[in-house]
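User: Show me sequence and structure for the first protein, then do the same for the second.

Assistant: Starting with the first protein.
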Amino acid sequence: MDNKKSVSRSMAVIVTAVVIVFSLVVSYFAANAAVSKAYSQIFEQNLLNAEEVINEFDSSSARLNYEFSNQIFSKATIVSKDIFEDATNEYLQILAEDNKLDAVYVTDRKGNIVKSYPEQTSGAKLSDNEETVGLTKVARGSSAKMHTEPQSVDVLNDEYSLYAAVPRTDAEGAVVVKLTVDNYDEVTGANLADKCGNGIYIEKNGECLSYNADFNFDFINLENLGVTEADLNNGSFALNVKNDENFVCRGKIIGDYTVVCAVKDGGEMSFVLWVMLIIGLVLIAATVTVFLLTDFMKQFFDIKFWKFIMVGILNTIVGMGLQFLFFNLCGWGEWISSIVGYILGSILSYFLNKYFTFKNKEKGWKPIAKFALNIAVCYGLAYGIAIPLTKWICVANSLTMFGWTVDKFAGNVSMLVGSCLFVAFNYIGQRFFAFKEKK
């Protein structure tokens, strides 16, 4: 009889383990499909935005160039009209400051600078400077107006510096102004990626035009990254760049433009696999334990256990809610957030478990001291295991989700894992130590 019972239990363990493994495999593939769908939605939306933005830019490119040049020459013309024959360098400084210019030069017909702000440029020639040498044509009267190619001076603020020259009102030379602009990216299309969405790389005729994808790689074009036309035509493709950073990408060709949307592969599926593995091992171990220790488990998981679970759910809502609030909104660290959350949650837990779960009638400071000691030990064990272990796994595999940094993701996950461990340790501690029944 005992042998039959043992065989039945063994079969039950095997069948349960198979069911658990099968469920986890299905869950893994479901999670994989969910991640793929999320990537696909990002790609479709961003590439659709890119098509609209690029088509609009391409159709208005000539107008944008004209408006930009007109804006530059208008400032130079205003200054030229305000300069009179006996104007001093000090007066040029006033004109420069009023019109928000970096410099103002007045030249003769040979391109010699006869007056200027700043003053140290007086006596120099336009031909002395590689940037302004071409503007000598305006001073000589062979060109009506010119401006130099804008040069980037502040990448973060999209600022460019350039020179513009128009004839003097007396036709005896040119007036040259130097100014800083912050709208040149609109003309060149360098800001197109920002208008399309995150993780965008745009190339025109084989040269990089605009990008905000976090490639962290010095490249000239897609060819340098090993992206082929087949990749662009075959849906999603993987891209590995400097420092072994991995991206999931999808491309689209729009006329002369090639657009790639890249999402950094944060190792979500590696993380899911780790979680599935841990859950599977825990569930299988729990199954074996239940079948091998049936009588003990019946006593262990009695009505008090389920009351404890009910209290734990309420307490978790309060404690975890406060932890995530402190960590994400207040900017506190994992330890401080979890400590304060558990202190506040433990006050609620004490009264509910003492009088509802375990119906402990012990009075005085002794049960409070035992409860506090239990909480401290369980907390230290749970988070002493969860925080370093979770951070090690996340950092080693560069795991992250929801656009968080690896540290922030690891911090949130460590609090979640720690709370699960804490519940297990806390139940044992409260039942058999803090509120132990007296026989």
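Switching to the second protein now.
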Amino acid sequence: MNAEQPLVTVSMPAYNTANTLEEAVNSILNQTYKNIEIILTANPSLDNTVEVAKRLASEHSQITVQLLKERMNPGASRNQGFEVAEGKYIAIMDCDDIAFPDRIKKEVAYLETHPEVYLVGAGSIIIDSKGNKQNEVKVQATDPKSIAELLPNSNPFINSTLLFRNEGYRYREKFSTSQDYDILLRFLTDGKVMVNLDEPLVYYRLSDSSNSIVGVSDAGHAAIREKIKDLYRQRRDTGKDNYEEDQMQEINTIMEIETEKQKAWREVRTYIRSGNLGEVRKLSKSYFMKYKDVKGFLAYFYSLLPDNLARFLLNQRKRLT
């Protein structure tokens, strides 16, 4: 390792990502920037994710594996890695994404030459579950002022592109999703300067294996984001929020009232997003037969299209929405 390069800790929680974990890890090991440690936090999984993680650690000295006894949400999993992180910088990486070879080099170079900046992100190129490129996601804002104006209403960052200074921040574990949005808003109220590089540095996979959307209802996801925004407004107006005292009861109530039909359709949508047409075909057929909802029939018809045509139609829909 080059002693002149500051150490970067790459945080990678893993759950049900056996098929993509090695490719994601290799994209970090093959970085042009070499002073890197990887913390793989392996959750108990339904596939052989844990075995893949242990094998990779046995083959590469840069990798440390944390074996969790029970499944944790993504924020709680990352916190386990943060506890042992030795890097000057922390890089966020999901175990189904692929980093460009010069991602870490470019992001570290920016923070090293801009000591006033706390965090840097970048754009991405979307790929489906099979690795087929779909479209580029350009950053919504690049400069600190624009980001500070946009962030209280929407998240202009792509999580797997983030690199920030290791100053002891942790994710808040009561949130089952959107923990990344909460920590970004806490950076904002603490006066941290954040930027985006106007170029893609990660292939962002629309995954069907570990996507948190599968486990959180649409209403629950929206309620969590609204709670995060409310906590931000509390800090902005009073200098503190009531997160520690808040039992999140209203969120828990909303999470409990999702119907089986709503859950079934969310799963169909997730597989449509990831490009897994085989699962779309199976689930949409079951959905239509059970609920007689025309959405199930349309999804089933979509699943019969050739892969290239299905991807084209999905991309066109994304550009219009």
